[in-house]
Design brief:
The protein is of the alpha/beta class and 767 residues long. It has 24 helices and 28 strands. Helix 1 packs across helix 13.
Amino acid sequence: MKKITPTFFKNKYFKGVFYGLITYLLTLSFMWFSDQLVRSPLPAIDNVIDDLAVQIRGSTGQDNFISHRDITIIDIDDYSISQLGRVQFWPRKYDAKVLDYISSGNPRLVIFDVLYTEADTLPGVYAEMLRESGFQNATEIIRTMSTDHFFAESIKNAGNVILGMFDDERVAAATDSDEDIYTYLPDFYAGEFQSLGLFQRSRLVLPVREFTDNALSVGLLKVNSDIDGTIRRYTLLQRSSKTENDGGENRRRLLTSIVVPAALHALDLQPSNLVYETGRLHIGSNISIPVDNRSQFRLNWLGRNEGFRYIPFANVFNGLVPAEYFEDKIVFIGSSAAGLEDLKNTPISDTLPGVEVHATALYNILNGTWLRELSPLALNLLLIFSAVVFSLIFLSLSQVYAFAAALLIILLQFFGYVLLIFPEFQLLLPISGLILLTISSFIVTLVIQSITEGREKAMLKGAFASYVSPEIVNQLIQTGEDPKLGGNETEITAFFSDIQSFSQISEKLTPKELVELMNEYLDAMTTLLNDEKGTLDKYIGDAIVAFFGAPLKVDNHALRACVVSQRMLKAQDALIAGWKENKKEWPKDVFKLKTRIGINTGIAVTGNMGSRKRFNYTMMGDTVNLAARCESGSKHYGVFTMVTQHTKDEAEKSSDACLFRALDKVKVKGRNQPVMLYEVMCLKEDATDAILACKTEFEAGLQAYFDQNWPAAMEHFKKSAELEPNKPNPDDGVATNPSLVLLNRTREMAENPPHENWDGVYAMTQK
């Protein structure tokens, strides 16, 4: 049988690796293509899953360096506005009063998520109204109404205030001549190429200068959302328009977010301790933040059972909170009031105050608990490993079970990630990619198996269907365990059958009648053979050569061979009855047709043997030869099914379905070792009292024969001869039976006793 695929590709593990690599490349290609789209579907799916995982967490366990209780947010909320009036009309003295009160409690840092880019003055309309009323110095009067100096003094006295700046498209761009702007910012640069991916901020607007002069530091308040408008990442660095030439290489001045100087001061570090390299921002020697090409990291939001404390601005203003509460705390001041337009869409809320975004970022940085993502190498190794494992799983299952396994794997991926991997390890996985990989693996395995194995299955069916039962053919196809070319040593049960005196019968039939008879006979016998999972070796005229236990291992093959022998004899009688009824013109010898069967169990070589152009799936070995001797030797004893002791023992291990009787211990021609032979008298269900009595008397006689008790042996054989189911009758095609054979031999032994060391073995000189 010609093989379609190389031998090594038959190996399931090699196929698993091969299919896995194809799956990996297909998945990688789809992921790359998806990333090129403006609205990439895979990241969108991942974002939804990640957001769900964030929302269902109870506690995150991030309190390493600082606790979430160490961060407090002073909230300019709707209640504070109702108490103190519109924010736009609050004098800076309000801010000064609140800052002074907080500072009296000795906080670690005070960070304002509030823009102080304009002086605290009344609108120009009031100056015009004063002039119309006769005041010549209206502008000076309005200027004296400013309370900025109170706030500036409070910032100076606090000594730990960080202010925010922003980028305004409405003002002129900052240039190299605007050195006064950059004097307030950290002297922090990166290579031009290294900074290419960062967001560009060209129109910087700083707080009022007297505030900036007294502040500890300033930083950008700008946060950037994903394409769906949700904030999941925090931008640490952005690039300005300022460049400098350092040894012939242009460098770009970098701008930090407000939390970077906050982290530096919380850790008692200087701006010189900041180091930016592609993929990393180092803050000192202990904090190394993994960032993308835009210098963003994934925020690790607090869980449902955690949260920063919010205190209304008005309550602090009115001294309702003990100043001692702020001791060693990091205090953020921001707004949750709807009218101030600082509410952000985040995974945990679609109306989260922007100040909490900054607070979460600082909390993550100081604790080193940002969400981690797999490196490209780790991600690819995970995809390759998963693809190979999934392919091996799907290769091992039928299509229905493989489909069920794919669904189960997808469910495990989803729930395992959301409920275990994300909350326990704070690790982001591309679940959409893994799900896509699972689906691809199932489809690739299904398609390739169908393409590459469909033809092989057809060839297997064609090669084996003519001599193996359809059930075994299907099993071969499902398991892929095709027999080895050249032979495979295994235990089988060899089976030979032959019609006695067939030459005499065939001489009396016309060629057409002979073909009709043989077709009916062989069809009936082969059908029974296949029913018991036997393998047809060949037809030799009227003879059938077959075996059980190959090309696939068949349980109970010895029993099956014995059972099929009796079913064949019963089917033969049914055929004869039909011929007598429908083929009355046939010669009478046809109606005497008798089949002899020989069976032996043992080790033999099975496989495709012959020439390259023509071969046959067959069996070879001593086991086969002995089975053939059993078939031919059965004529000597007048029985129709003769088996060896090994076959009888193996059959009885499986079932007592067959009735065996011991026949003789013989040494067949061509073999030195003697073998005990048995007759399959009938199926146990067909045994009559006469047959059972015959077996008992015969085996008693045989034992007396082996003991050289000739008179007792002859007495038993005479009794069993009367009970034999087959008595000599020319009309029935029966010439003798075991009782008569052994009776005559015993008489001879009595007249001419064997030598003293006789072991009871009878030498069979005929084949």
